[in-house]
Design brief:
The structure is a homodimer. Helix content of chain A is 32%, strand content 30%. By secondary structure, the first copy, chain A, is an alpha+beta fold. Chain A has one domain (7-168): Gcn5-related N-acetyltransferase (GNAT) (Aminopeptidase, 3-Layer(aba) Sandwich). The longest helix of chain A has 15 residues, at 101-115. The radius of gyration of chain A is 18 Å and the shape is globular. Chain A starts with 6 loop residues before the first strand and ends in a 10-residue tail after the last helix. Chains A and B meet through helix 1, helix 2, strand 3, strand 4 and helix 3 of A and helix 1, helix 2, strand 3, strand 4 and helix 3 of B. Strand 5 (120-126) of chain A pairs antiparallel with strand 7 (147-153) of chain B.
Chain lengths: 171, 171
Amino acid sequence: MKQDQMIDIREATEQDVPQLLAFIRELAEYERLAHQVVATVEDLSRNLFGPQPCAHALVASLDSHPVGFALYFYNFSTFLGRPGLYLEDLYVRPPARGLGIGGQLLARLARLALARGCGRMEWAVLDWNQPAIGFYRKLGATPNDDWTTYRLSGNALRDLAAVESAAGISD
Amino acid sequence: MKQDQMIDIREATEQDVPQLLAFIRELAEYERLAHQVVATVEDLSRNLFGPQPCAHALVASLDSHPVGFALYFYNFSTFLGRPGLYLEDLYVRPPARGLGIGGQLLARLARLALARGCGRMEWAVLDWNQPAIGFYRKLGATPNDDWTTYRLSGNALRDLAAVESAAGISD
């Protein structure tokens, strides 16, 4: 890092929402999943800064310009009996990479996790993203190789919600 | 199901915590992960029913006897801009299986998810648990095959939290 470059990590505010949405779209492009992004400024404002927030965000700046973010929420482990910190998104713009900004975001999250009494930090990585996987392994992160996440959405979710009686689904 | 068997699904209360912990231990035995369970009654009481709850639970009863549970929390999708419902644990005692109780728990969760404005329901399944996987696929659930969850805990988490400067980690 050049001596005159200043990195700052801070909590996001509602004024950051348009910038956060731009970062989310850039991350989705990188992940080849841009078609999945339907979030709006209003969605993010309500769910991050409304009366019932379900996630939180950090903004990373380089020389006072936002260059990355981390978005996270708290989950829960029944085995540990404690919350965990789940990192939903981590992104640093390509020109700002190699300066340790991603690592600083992760370090701040680790401090938040310990302050909240969390037993662990977790996040999902695309299996082809070897640069990211190498970075995470260097930190000591371990893959949950034996588990696969299943997802129910759209009509399948609505159909399940419509089941009222035990006769509807047999396990 | 015999005509005289009554299934009931209700929200857990703090009085259910010892029963929930017993179910969590039985589930861990089934998953061959009993050694990972360190949760106590106090942990669950605080984190489910304290001033800052991080998860919620449903209890399923058969003829007024608790026979299973679901434990869940809300997560967040940046791509959807909406919360999701994450099912951490789903368990029905073996003698009570085949009556549709698991399906009723899932249907109640789907209704909770839609009521909260969630875009999806998600949960993790052990790859060897083919009976569960078959059941979830019948509901229309799809696997996130391209993703792996990474986890940081213990000393690795504490080491990361101790990083204060950009020089500490290079990405």
